[in-house]
Amino acid sequence: MKLKVYKDKQEVARQFSNYFAELVKDKTEFHVALSGGSTPKIVFDVLASNYGDKIDWSNIHFYWGDERCVPPTDNQSNYKMTVEHLFSKINVPEENVHRVLGEAEPDREAMRYANLLEINLDRVEGVPQFDLVILGMGDDGHTASIFPHEIDLWNAEDHCVVATHPDSGQKRVSINGKVINTAKEVVFLVTGAGKAKKVQAILGKTEDYHAYPASLVNPFSGKLVWFMDEDAASLLKQ
């Protein structure tokens, strides 16, 4: 595991963009699962601005690690956010964008998306393998859309699960822990002082860190990188 700590969100976005560009260089096919949230929004802006014409986007296939069960026109849609901040600014073939149909019936969509992953990705012991999974982490220690109160979904039999937000009750479709940990590489993008306590617990293995889904991210490849700003890393011992 590698920890990369930078001054602020903007620098995290810049450094991750450099990292991503290096990762996809010379690849003729690359499958990545995207994350929603405020940090990826900045990352997508920087990626489009700095690498829009430097990366061959026709080689990259985009998926989502999780999606809210809302239409693609809804402001809460991770897909919509990605279109606005990345896809609208780069030349990516339409057939390379594999969105979760947030407007569909959740259980049926989870099944359809799991099948799509099985068809499109190589499999390791029956589990679809992404080249890269990008994750965020909530203030409660959730990642993708696996929340602490539904941590059992992490090891669910199905590659994609239907999760429920603990406060709003909103349904979400999410990849499970096996798919995350089977990825060739996993990256956390974590910024803001609100994340500092959970970062400290998970990386320092203190408190009930096992209760936080983000603590279960441990790719079999050993390739896990945390990109953080100084605020998120502020409680870590130097």
Give an overview in words.
With 238 residues, the chain is of the alpha/beta class. It has one domain: Rossmann fold. 29% of the residues lie in helices and 21% in strands. The chain has helices at 9-24, 38-51, 78-85, 106-120, 177-182, 196-204, and strands at 2-6, 30-34, 60-64, 66-68, 122-124, 127-129, 132-135, 160-164, 171-175, 186-190, 224-229. Strands 1-11-10-7-2-3 form a six-stranded parallel beta sheet, with helices on one face. The protein has a three-stranded antiparallel beta sheet with strand order 4-9-8. A two-stranded antiparallel sheet has the order 5-6. Strand 8 (160-164) and strand 9 form a beta hairpin. The radius of gyration is 17 Å and the shape is globular. The two termini are 16 Å apart.
CATH topology: Rossmann fold
- What characterizes the major β-sheet? 6 strands, parallel
C-alpha termini separation: 16 Å
- Proportion in β-strands: 15-25%
The top level CATH class name = Alpha Beta
User: Roughly how much helix do the residues carry, as a percent range?
Assistant: 25-40%
Q: In terms of per-residue confidence, which ranges show pLDDT below 50 for 5 or more consecutive residues?
A: none
Our count of domains comes out at: 1
Strands side by side in the biggest sheet? 1-11-10-7-2-3
H/E element string?
EHEHEEHHEEEEEHEHE
Give the overall silhouette.
globular
Rounded radius of gyration (Å): 17 Å
Write down the overall mean pLDDT.
97
